[in-house]
Design goal:
single chain, alpha/beta, 7 helices, about 30% helix
Length: about 230
Amino acid sequence: MKPVAIFRHSPGEGPGYFSAFLDRRLVPWQLIKIDETPAVPTDPCAFSGLAFMGGPMSVNDPLPWIEQELALICAAQARNIPVIGHCLGGQLMAKAFGAVVTRNPVKEIGWGTVRVLDNPIARTWFGELPEFHAFHWHGETFSLPPAAIRILESSHCASQAFALGPHLGMQCHVEMTEAMIRLWNRHWAAENAAPGPSVQTPAQMAERMEERLASMRVAADRLYTRWIEGLQHG
């Protein structure tokens, strides 16, 4: 089986739990470190699937690799090679599929409840799960691409996830580990975001972390299990 290509855009925003899930399912994967060498593959057929992680940049920034990744996502869609995106990765997918990425009404940082939409596509991905605690760290959001189905929402961001055939784009971070959360919190002050309903402090994010991670991984397992069903086995 060809590997899943995992695109890392920032040293602290690696695959986290996603790679642990792939290892457990014996799915090979290859980490492509765009933050070190911004060379984007041009042929999606070299991989069984494509995964795009987060990053502090905007998909609207004039970075050469962004346009290259958008082209790769479009090429994967044309060949029915599944794509999955986390936060920035979901925004890249949305833009590649014809949507726009704009500023969210508020920054969303920390733990927050996300609700599964009541539609057949959402149930295909989540089963009967009604909601769960997800981790958030974003100031922008995506609109819904043509033909995509919105499957997840939160009180502070309507577009938390969409599905389009075998492709899954997420605004939230279901890939988080405790180590990643603690690392990101070192940069919390740089966000210049006042604590409030949509922004937690590092101390608040640390509360019940083990419980929250366990809850989120129930949802992550369902999403990742559904996603790998579409991987190319050639």
